[in-house]
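Exercise 7. Given the encoded structure of a 133-residue chain, write a plausible sequence.
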């Protein structure tokens, strides 16, 4: 899962010139696909792909004894926080829209029908995303 502070050392990718892509796996793609607005989905997909535009031109640093740790770890850490913050914001907006929709549906159809048959299809997958600090 995508998690803040997974990469804690700046020198972890020192000398890794071939590190040019980050591919995310797991629940994040399901969560993004379930976001109600296409604009949010597109924004998240662009944010996720942005690391693959930056990494190929990011310095990897030199040999272990020259003091140059490179910037790949810093760039990935910054990108991770950006993705998480954006996703958390969209999830909050999604939940607000879901609450508004539920209220509107309760006025139009019986509450038990809305809660059992409609609302579950609008909810996001149960993945947790957090940003520290």
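Solution.
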């Amino acid at each position: 899962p995508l998690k803040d502070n997974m990469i804690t050392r700046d020198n972890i990718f020192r000398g890794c010139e071939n590190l040019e892509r980050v591919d995310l796996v797991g629940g994040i793609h399901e969560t993004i696909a379930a976001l109600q607005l296409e604009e949010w989905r597109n924004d998240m997909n662009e944010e996720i792909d942005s690391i693959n535009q930056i990494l190929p031109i990011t310095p990897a640093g030199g040999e272990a004894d020259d003091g140059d740790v490179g910037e790949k770890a810093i760039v990935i850490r910054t990108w991770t926080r950006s993705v998480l913050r954006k996703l958390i914001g969209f999830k909050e907006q999604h939940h607000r829209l879901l609450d508004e929709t539920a209220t509107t549906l309760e006025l139009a159809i019986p509450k038990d029908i809305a809660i059992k048959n409609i609302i579950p299809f609008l909810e996001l997958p149960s993945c947790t995303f957090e940003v520290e600090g």
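Remark. The chain has a mean pLDDT of 84. Students should compare their own answers with the one above.
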